[in-house]
Specification:
The protein is of the alpha/beta class. It has two domains: 184 residues, Alpha-Beta Complex (Quinone Oxidoreductase, Chain A, domain 1), CATH 3.90.180.10; 133 residues, Rossmann fold (3-Layer(aba) Sandwich). It is 27% helix and 25% strand. The chain is built from ten helices and 16 strands. Strands 3, 5, 6, 7, 8, 15 and 16 form a seven-stranded mixed beta sheet that branches. A six-stranded parallel beta sheet has the order 11-10-9-12-13-14, with helices on both faces. A three-stranded antiparallel beta sheet has the order 2-1-4, with no helix packed on it. Strand 12, helix 7 and strand 13 form a beta-alpha-beta unit. Helix 3 crosses helix 4 and helix 3 packs across helix 9. The chain is elongated. The termini are close together.
Length: 337
């Protein structure tokens, strides 16, 4: 089969298209998926370049988020049929220690992949393969961070940093879906226009303007005695220099939600804001199968439409990863074998 493989870590040019990668065969409790779509994530950039403490077995087929049809069923698998449309959970809920698809186990940047049946989630009618493949890492992470852990509710004022990427765009759509007032930050005119088109009530070019002052202008400066001013929620998965400014825009009792640290994991902080304003800092890690099921239901019901930036053929996978690395993406990149 054709597959995009990483034979050694380095830069993105280490990704190569293998025209004759061995076809997978299902073992006990496994199925073979005919891949219809896989979406790329910034995690694929990390996999190419290497991450401290994580040794990726080589060669490795990248691609965490996979949607397709069951092509073959192995022994000991029940309740599934050849031809069923399925989403593959990149994390195995029955054995999470086995690691991520596309990092520890061959992923979806190929014509076929073999997966444990415990990873399978049925795709409902009304949800397409490309839409389903867009979900797990970005939308699943956003759904868990915002609702399962963050308790975001209708009418709240929500500031979203890094709003034009995979997780960020998911947060914008989900927040607007439930009736929040959304302030979204982006870095180019093109991205700001996209954020507005997705429903953001206010947009801020964080490279040209101080988002703290912009929030104070919109809602007044937070006051620790009267509980006035600021936003209810800040979504910040960048870290770095944006961490302390995020604390400064939250109203008393506000929540700072995080699921990553793409701009730096060890920022300076200021505990005075945390205790003075009774702030809650809530971390979130990955997603649960229930998050993915709910997201596909929302798509099928017409309430959610994942933002897909580009659909590329398999032989342009490396170009898609490069676009992610260079922050050229607005939404998700989908690969179709």
């Amino acid at each position: 089969m054709r597959a995009v493989c990483l034979h050694e870590q380095g830069d993105i040019d280490k990704l190569t298209l293998d025209e004759n990668f061995p076809d997978p065969a299902p073992g006990e409790g496994q199925v073979v998926i005919r891949v219809k779509a896989t979406s790329l994530n910034y995690h694929d950039v990390f996999t190419c370049r290497g991450m401290p403490g994580i040794k990726v077995p080589m060669p490795m087929i990248i691609g965490l988020d996979i949607a397709g049809e069951i092509a073959e069923i192995g022994a000991g698998v029940f309740g599934w049929a050849v031809g069923e449309a399925v989403l593959v959970n990149p994390l195995d809920p029955a054995a999470p220690q086995n690691g991520l698809m596309g990092e520890m186990i061959h992923g979806g940047a190929a014509e076929y992949c073999v997966v444990d049946a415990t990873r399978l989630i049925r795709i409902p009618d009304g949800c397409g393969f490309e839409q389903a493949a867009a979900l797990p890492v970005a939308y699943g992470t956003a759904h868990r961070m915002m609702f399962t852990n963050g308790g975001v509710t209708e009418g709240e004022k929500v500031l979203i940093l890094g709003a034009s990427g995979g997780v960020g765009s998911s947060c914008v759509l989900l927040a607007k879906m439930i009736g929040c007032e959304v302030v979204a930050c982006g870095s180019t005119e093109e991205k700001l226009k996209a954020l507005t088109a997705w429903g953001a009530d206010h947009v801020i070019d964080y490279k040209e303007k101080d988002f703290v002052k912009e929030i104070w202008n919109l809602y007044t400066k937070p006051h620790r005695r009267t509980f006035d001013g600021g936003v209810d929620v800040v979504i910040n998965f960048t870290g770095g220099d944006t961490w302390v400014p995020s604390l400064r825009v939250l109203r008393r009792g506000g929540r700072l939600l995080t699921c990553g640290a793409t701009a730096g994991f060890d920022p300076k902080t200021d505990l005075r804001y945390v205790w003075t304003y009774e702030l809650k800092i809530l971390g979130s890690n990955s997603w649960a199968p229930e998050d993915l099921e709910r997201l596909m239901e929302l798509i099928a019901d017409g309430r959610l439409k994942p933002v897909i930036d580009t659909v590329l053929p398999l032989d342009r996978t490396a170009e898609g990863v490069r676009q992610l690395a260079e922050r050229e993406v607005i939404g998700k990149i989908i690969i179709t074998p």
